[in-house]
Amino acid sequence: MRTIAIASDHGGVELRALLARDLAEWGWGVLDLGTDGPASVDYPDFAVKVAGALKSGQAERGLLLCGTGIGISIAANRFVHVRAALVHDAFGARMARQHNDANVLVMGARVIGPEVARDCLKIFLETAFEGGRHAGRVAKLSDNA
Ligand code: RB5
Hints:
Layout: E1 3-8, H1 13-25, E2 29-32, H2 43-56, E3 61-66, H3 70-76, E4 84-86, H4 90-98, E5 104-108, H5 114-126, H6 133-140
Parallel strand pairs: 1-2, 1-3, 3-5, 4-5
The chain binds D-ribose.
């Protein structure tokens, strides 16, 4: 079973719960790394958890949510093995995979509605990296590591 690690700060708890149900329905193993309630937490701590799950091989993809998606995407992209894409629509979700080989989808739970988020996630999971001219560009993302 393919596994995705998911996490959010307090801003993304409700959307994360909804998307976790979708993921299970779509046949994905879900490694849910919190946060578990509405109490205020720090989004970088949850980016670290998903980055760790990707690094260890516990998960092959990640999903991160915070209020805007901005803070948690910045945090996730500090890790050289993470290519986190902050996405707001289906086009972005598709391009993030086809051109950027993104391994983590990031969305802003206070920005995006649940149906658009669900659409983005499905596309992100089902779209392949195109490789070709994009492969060298993606490789360059790690040049300054
Ligand atoms: C939390 O209030 C909020 O700052 C956080 O979820 C996120 O939007 C940060 O980028």
